[in-house]
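sanity check this record:
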Amino acid sequence: MVLQIKPMRLEDLEAVMEIEEKCFILPWSKLSFLHELLDNERAYYYVAVRDQQILGYIGMWIVLDEGHITNLAVHPSYRRQGVGRALLKNLAFEGKKMGLNYLTLEVRISNLSAQILYKEVGFVEAGVRPGYYQDNREDALIMWKGPL
């Protein structure tokens, strides 16, 4: 079956939380996702679905003409199958429809596989945020894509 990208719904949160907890040392709480979906009018979240199973998700906040990617995660069993790439391409497509000109994100300096993916879809390095990650004070590479 084909991979579909759909807006995240409240019913998706159980699967999203499972992926979040498998992918991150300091996962977001369910309450954080609820806030994003229900209260943050600048937040947009999408899930990748195949055969009614959520394989990954992506989110962004809109600030002026920019989309700031808050998180991107793919279930470990489905990595390197184009899920992350599809989520990123969909986000750029949706962002352009909303009038955004740029996308930006932070990625761990040590996460080379993610950096490669981001570069493959058009992101470029733009700087470093020293000590950005709370768990180990690792630096974050800032990347930008645009104009969309």
